[in-house]
Write a structure and sequence with these properties.
Layout: H1 4-16, H2 22-30, E1 51-54, E2 57-59, H3 62-73, E3 80-84, H4 90-96, E4 101-106, H5 109-121, E5 127-131, E6 144-149, H6 158-162, E7 164-174, E8 179-186, E9 192-200
């Protein structure tokens, strides 16, 4: 269930669902999603579904990972990206092979420690991790060319908007019962352009940290 043929079937499903960026598809083909799951669930790694990773969190559905990554990269190469919610580290690993530097924040330390071990195993050295409240982003490292958020706030945190560089792109699920995936682009000055992409289902973005 972790063979290349199994992975290729997943990539074909993603293409059928409209993912067209070959850079994203190639990276997802080569990223071993089974390493980001506990052994008991590894056989389901290449199903197009979200799966539990503990602490009431999930590893995102591959389609959503591909969609958010494709949207983030659609305007051109990105040098400096913030990820809010490291989780298992799967989305982080995909991003790391497509952008210059990934700054990833996670509020649940045990999840973050597991993710960091996986990054070392995969020799991904352009990821910098921080254990902190994701709603605040990483203001010391601003401004970011892109921000990707893997949990849903009820409203877009202003702190994240202010950490976007001019022309920067924020991909974020927003809402409680009915969530929308949004693309927010920072215009010159203080303006923002917002596009609604599709309806999604994510765990909520909450404040505070867990050790």
């Amino acid at each position: 269930m972790t063979s290349r043929r199994t992975r290729e079937r997943l990539i074909q499903r993603l293409r059928e669902q409209g993912i067209s960026d070959m850079r994203v598809l190639d990276v997802m083909l080569d990223t071993p999603r089974h390493l980001f799951l506990d052994e008991a669930l590894a056989h389901r790694a290449y199903e197009d579904t979200a799966l539990p990773i503990g602490f009431n969190q999930t590893i995102s559905q591959p389609y959503i990972v591909a969609r958010m990554t494709e949207v983030l990269l659609a305007a051109g190469p990105l040098d400096k990206v913030l990820e809010v919610g490291t989780g298992s580290g799967y989305q982080t690993a995909v991003l790391a092979r497509l952008v210059g530097q990934v700054y990833s924040v996670e509020r649940i330390r045990p999840l973050q420690e597991k993710a960091k071990d996986r990054f070392k195993r995969l020799k991904l050295y352009n990821i910098i991790c921080r254990h902190s409240d994701g709603t605040m982003g990483w203001p010391e490292k601003m401004q970011f060319d892109g921000i990707l958020v893997t949990a849903a706030p009820e409203q877009v945190p202003d702190e994240l908007l202010q950490q976007l560089a001019p022309g920067g792109r924020l991909v974020i699920p927003v809402g409680r019962d009915q969530q929308q995936l949004k693309l927010i682009t920072r215009l010159d000055g203080d303006g923002f352009d917002t596009q609604v992409l599709e309806f999604v289902r994510f765990v909520p973005l909450v404040s505070g940290t867990i050790r």
